[in-house]
């Protein structure tokens, strides 16, 4: 593994007469499963530089379809400041424009579930001072990344303690003509059971009672809003604890750059609760 050229955010704060700064690095992580380097943005808080004994929780923040690992830091340049405010590390992986963060059954070159859980996560824990347990990890994302965050957290409750989704594409069965999804799953007409299996709507049975803190939200003008509302009702019916936020907004960066602020408060509350329990 190697560190690529670092981007340093010159957002400095005076602390005790000294200066500390958040840092934003781009790191390449070798994926043995896909035989390639994958880039990731890693944001460390100011306290990471000043308190060398401290360990920090991590939030994995996923991009949407057509995006890449740079999206979040470019569209939400305030993230380093929030990382410092809440004392956490933020990791923005590259999930390929259309990976959906699966190990794609129809494309053996796309192994993003393995990458996220067995390659990237151990790398971050080895190279950064993290709280290397589910109590110190959260995952969220937008659109495709919102679906990916739930998919990974539901299937790996031993790795993540909290998960969230913003404007998530949570029922892929409603995308029958999606060419890029067919490349990953095969056609829905030929593999209907596969499309059902990979849909978040049909994965609630995986959830163990109280295993995950769950938050999701969607703008009322978003085409994904009915799907998110339906998942909310299904979770209520199954008595799955969760927070669902409905507010005005569309499938747009103006919505997501506002939404991520709520998500980081949600994760901060979870990490604080876990820290209190650990005392």
TrEMBL record:
InterPro entries tied to this protein: AB_hydrolase_fold, Esterase-like, Mycobacterial_A85_antigen
Sorted UniProt keywords: Signal
The keyword Transmembrane helix appears for this protein: no
Transmembrane segments: none
Keyword hit for Signal: yes
Residues spanning the signal sequence: 1-21
Top-rank lineage group of the source organism: Bacteria
Recorded GO MF terms: acyltransferase activity, transferring groups other than amino-acyl groups
Designated name of the protein: Esterase family protein
Lineage of the species this protein comes from: Bacteria, Pseudomonadati, Bacteroidota, Flavobacteriia, Flavobacteriales
């Amino acid at each position: 593994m190697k560190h690529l050229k670092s981007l340093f955010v010159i957002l400095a704060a005076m602390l005790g007469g000294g200066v500390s700064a958040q840092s934003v690095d781009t790191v390449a992580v070798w994926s043995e499963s896909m035989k390639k380097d994958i880039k990731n943005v890693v944001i460390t808080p100011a306290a990471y530089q000043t308190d060398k004994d401290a360990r920090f929780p991590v939030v994995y923040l996923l991009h949407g379809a057509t995006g890449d690992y740079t999206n979040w830091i470019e569209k939400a340049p305030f993230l380093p400041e929030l990382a410092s405010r809440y004392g956490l590390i933020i990791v923005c992986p590259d999930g390929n424009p259309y990976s959906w963060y699966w190990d794609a059954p129809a494309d053996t070159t796309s192994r993003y579930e393995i990458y996220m859980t067995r390659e990237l996560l151990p790398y971050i824990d080895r190279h950064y001072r993290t709280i290397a347990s589910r109590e110190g990890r959260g995952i969220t994302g937008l659109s495709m990344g919102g679906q990916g965050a739930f998919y990974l957290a539901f299937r790996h409750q031993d790795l993540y303690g909290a998960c969230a989704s913003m404007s998530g594409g949570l029922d892929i069965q409603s995308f029958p003509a999606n060419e890029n999804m067919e490349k990953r799953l095969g056609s829905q007409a030929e593999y209907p059971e596969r499309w059902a299996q990979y849909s978040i709507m049909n994965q609630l049975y995986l959830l163990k009672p109280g295993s995950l803190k769950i938050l999701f939200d969607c703008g009322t003008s978003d085409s994904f809003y009915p799907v998110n509302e339906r998942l909310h009702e299904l979770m209520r019916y199954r008595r799955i604890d969760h927070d669902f936020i409905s507010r005005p907004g569309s499938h747009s960066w103006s919505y997501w750059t506002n939404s991520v602020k709520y998500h980081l408060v949600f994760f901060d509350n979870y990490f604080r609760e876990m820290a209190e329990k650990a005392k």
